[in-house]
Amino acid sequence: MEGFVYLTEADLKRAAKFVGMSARAFEAKYVYRTRHQMRFRKPPEKQCPFLVDHGCSIHPGKPTQCRTFPFWPELVESKREWKRTSQYCPGIGKGPLIQIGTAMEIAEEQRRAYPEMYK
User: Fold this and answer.
1) How many helices (H) and strands (E) in the chain?
2) Dihedral (Cα; 33, 37, 40, 42), 10-degree rounding
3) What predicted TM-score, i.e. pTM, was given to this entire model?
4) Nearest to 26 by CA among 14, 35, 37
5) What is the C-alpha separation between 85 and 111, in angstroms, rounded?
6) pLDDT in tens, 37-73
7) What is the pLDDT of residues 44-54, one digit of tens each?
8) How big is the CA angle at 71 (ends 46 and 73), to the nearest 5 degrees?
Protein backbone atom coordinates (compact mmCIF):
# COMPACT_ATOMS: atom_id res chain seq x y z
CA MET A 1 0.00 0.00 0.00
CA GLU A 2 1.27 3.46 -0.86
CA GLY A 3 0.43 6.97 0.20
CA PHE A 4 0.70 9.11 3.28
CA VAL A 5 -0.94 9.23 6.69
CA TYR A 6 -2.57 12.65 6.98
CA LEU A 7 -3.34 14.36 10.27
CA THR A 8 -5.76 16.88 11.68
CA GLU A 9 -4.78 19.19 14.53
CA ALA A 10 -6.78 16.95 16.88
CA ASP A 11 -4.93 13.88 15.53
CA LEU A 12 -1.58 15.55 16.20
CA LYS A 13 -2.50 16.38 19.80
CA ARG A 14 -3.99 12.95 20.49
CA ALA A 15 -0.97 11.06 19.11
CA ALA A 16 1.48 13.33 20.94
CA LYS A 17 -0.35 12.82 24.22
CA PHE A 18 -0.43 9.05 23.70
CA VAL A 19 3.37 8.87 23.26
CA GLY A 20 3.96 11.33 26.14
CA MET A 21 5.29 14.25 24.10
CA SER A 22 4.22 17.83 23.66
CA ALA A 23 2.42 18.50 20.37
CA ARG A 24 5.30 20.75 19.33
CA ALA A 25 8.00 18.14 20.01
CA PHE A 26 5.92 15.41 18.36
CA GLU A 27 5.42 17.54 15.26
CA ALA A 28 9.12 18.37 15.03
CA LYS A 29 10.03 14.69 15.15
CA TYR A 30 7.26 12.95 13.21
CA VAL A 31 5.25 15.44 11.13
CA TYR A 32 5.65 17.17 7.79
CA ARG A 33 3.40 20.23 7.46
CA THR A 34 2.55 22.27 4.39
CA ARG A 35 0.27 25.27 4.15
CA HIS A 36 -2.77 23.07 3.49
CA GLN A 37 -2.10 19.74 5.16
CA MET A 38 -0.14 17.79 7.68
CA ARG A 39 1.11 14.22 7.46
CA PHE A 40 3.47 11.82 9.17
CA ARG A 41 6.99 11.79 7.83
CA LYS A 42 7.37 8.61 5.82
CA PRO A 43 10.28 6.47 7.02
CA PRO A 44 12.16 4.29 4.54
CA GLU A 45 10.43 1.01 3.70
CA LYS A 46 7.14 1.65 5.53
CA GLN A 47 4.15 3.96 5.36
CA CYS A 48 4.15 5.32 8.89
CA PRO A 49 6.67 5.78 11.73
CA PHE A 50 4.26 3.96 14.05
CA LEU A 51 3.57 0.94 11.87
CA VAL A 52 5.09 -2.20 13.35
CA ASP A 53 4.79 -5.89 12.46
CA HIS A 54 1.72 -6.42 14.62
CA GLY A 55 -0.02 -3.20 13.49
CA CYS A 56 -0.26 0.33 14.82
CA SER A 57 1.95 1.04 17.82
CA ILE A 58 -0.16 4.11 18.76
CA HIS A 59 -3.54 2.44 18.21
CA PRO A 60 -5.45 4.39 20.93
CA GLY A 61 -4.02 7.66 19.55
CA LYS A 62 -4.07 6.90 15.84
CA PRO A 63 -5.17 9.49 13.26
CA THR A 64 -8.71 9.78 11.92
CA GLN A 65 -7.54 8.50 8.52
CA CYS A 66 -6.38 5.25 10.07
CA ARG A 67 -9.31 4.90 12.45
CA THR A 68 -11.88 5.29 9.66
CA PHE A 69 -10.16 2.98 7.15
CA PRO A 70 -11.55 1.24 5.09
CA PHE A 71 -14.71 3.35 5.38
CA TRP A 72 -13.39 6.24 3.30
CA PRO A 73 -15.78 8.01 0.90
CA GLU A 74 -13.89 6.91 -2.19
CA LEU A 75 -14.13 3.27 -1.07
CA VAL A 76 -17.67 2.98 0.31
CA GLU A 77 -19.09 4.89 -2.65
CA SER A 78 -17.53 2.56 -5.24
CA LYS A 79 -18.07 -1.20 -5.38
CA ARG A 80 -15.03 -1.47 -7.65
CA GLU A 81 -12.74 0.37 -5.22
CA TRP A 82 -14.14 -1.56 -2.24
CA LYS A 83 -13.41 -4.86 -3.99
CA ARG A 84 -9.90 -3.70 -4.96
CA THR A 85 -9.20 -2.63 -1.38
CA SER A 86 -10.41 -5.98 -0.05
CA GLN A 87 -7.44 -7.59 -1.83
CA TYR A 88 -5.03 -6.07 0.71
CA CYS A 89 -7.18 -5.07 3.69
CA PRO A 90 -7.32 -8.06 6.05
CA GLY A 91 -10.41 -6.74 7.87
CA ILE A 92 -12.81 -6.48 4.93
CA GLY A 93 -15.26 -9.36 5.07
CA LYS A 94 -14.24 -10.33 8.63
CA GLY A 95 -15.95 -9.70 11.94
CA PRO A 96 -19.42 -8.31 12.46
CA LEU A 97 -21.31 -6.90 9.51
CA ILE A 98 -21.26 -3.10 9.29
CA GLN A 99 -24.48 -1.62 7.95
CA ILE A 100 -24.10 0.69 4.93
CA GLY A 101 -25.58 3.62 6.88
CA THR A 102 -22.88 3.24 9.53
CA ALA A 103 -20.19 2.93 6.86
CA MET A 104 -21.46 6.13 5.22
CA GLU A 105 -21.42 7.97 8.58
CA ILE A 106 -17.80 6.93 9.11
CA ALA A 107 -16.98 8.01 5.55
CA GLU A 108 -18.54 11.41 6.28
CA GLU A 109 -16.32 11.75 9.36
CA GLN A 110 -13.32 11.18 7.08
CA ARG A 111 -14.64 13.80 4.64
CA ARG A 112 -15.11 16.36 7.46
CA ALA A 113 -11.69 15.66 8.96
CA TYR A 114 -9.85 16.23 5.67
CA PRO A 115 -11.91 18.76 3.67
CA GLU A 116 -8.97 19.63 1.41
CA MET A 117 -8.94 16.05 0.13
CA TYR A 118 -12.66 15.98 -0.68
CA LYS A 119 -13.41 19.21 -2.51
Assistant:
1) 6, 5
2) -90
3) 0.86
4) 14
5) 18
6) 999 999 988 889 999 987 899 999 999 999 999 999 9
7) 888 899 999 87
8) 105
What strands, in cross-sheet order, belong to the sheet with 6-7?
A: 6-7, 38-40, 31-33
Asked whether the beta carbons of 114 and 8 are under 8 A apart, the reply is: yes
Find, among 44, 55, 41, 46, the residue nearest to 12 by Cα: 41
Torsion angle (degrees, nearest 10) of CA 119, 3, 51, 21: -50
List for the chain the helix, strand, coil content (%; round to 5): 45, 10, 45
Burial of 74 (0-12, 13-18, 19+ CB in 10 A): middle
CB 70 within 8 A of CB 109: no
- Secondary structure class of 47 (helix, strand, coil): coil
The amino acid sitting at 77 is: E
d(CA 55, CA 47): 12
- DSSP alpha helices (H): ranges in the chain? 9-19, 23-30, 64-68, 73-76, 79-86, 100-113
Which amino acid is it at 54?
A: H
